[in-house]
Amino acid sequence: MSLLHKQLTPMPQRRSRRRLYITLSIVAILVVFLLLFTNISNDAAFVAHFATPPQHFTYSGHSSYVNSVAWSPGGKRIASASSDHTAQVWDASNGGHVLTYRGHSADVLTLAWSPGGQYIATGSLDTTVQIWNPLNGATLYTYRGHSDAIFDLAWSPDGKRIASVSSDGTMQIWDALTGQHVVTYTGSSTLRGGIAASNAVAWSPDGQFLALGGPGPAMLINPATAKVIGSYGPHGGDSYAAAFSPDSKYLAVGRDDTYVEIWDIATNTNVYTYSGHTGNIFTLAWSPDGKRIASGGADSTVQVWDALTGNHEYTYRGHLDFYWGHFTSDQEVDTVAWSPDGKHIASGGTDDTVQVWQPQ
Predict the structure, then answer these.
(1) Residue 271 confidence (pLDDT) above 80
(2) pTM recorded for the entire structure
(3) How many other C-beta atoms are found inside a 10 Å radius of the C-beta of residue 83?
């Protein structure tokens, strides 16, 4: 009989039993530790929370930070931009993947859906803004007017213009269908000259104003002339986010001092300051009915509050929590967006996810 056909002698079972005893001993030590040194009710609550399905759905199609999210005007799709160099379009009701856009060669930092829903604009670390079709991913054209990363962009309400801000210190307005340059705002960090646009841009719903965020206060700009109309906030620190109320009467400004300031545009007065966060404010969004504001930032939370009074209503911790399917914690929230019907919020950040949930 050859060695190939010789029956093998069964291995002794002592080693496997020894491993079993060691495993049981470790489990016993952990149980004793939990009983003696931790609060049993808290432990049970953590286990129950960890095993309970979250009250939201999570889109996990990206492999790096989610920098921007936007709902389609009809509310059926969500587009998300990521540091994985892609923008992705997916079903807003169940997270089903629809399309991946790969036109950029670096991190995609911002995106916005055109008012009519026919196009998406994306801005990138590769210094370009690209306009493309969300149905098939076909690129309409690439805008190359900036010389550094594009951090934010906004369509005019009529869909004819796009405003983009870059770390090159400029805000540029250009034709949304041709890419032809219209006007450039170049500010300085001095009080008289205004700020260098870099962090945020928002177009008022009535089309009359642009708000810019960067070093110092937020600035109100005339989109036809790129002239400064007013400034809002202190001249130290940074304005990271800006959002107009749906009636264009108020401007919300998120800052690096943990505060969100609400300003009356007509009177240039601070209506109130929201102070519920404990970290930088990176993103803001008014609800479509103008009654609530959602804000997110470095403290890993999204907070929803009354837009008229600043009274806190709800804190969402889905990007902060540790639960089954979400094994990261203490992540920044970089983007929030209300659904067109105001019933859901999409939020994304440095945990590489987009989460869609109902503000309570």
Answers:
(1) yes
(2) 0.83
(3) 20
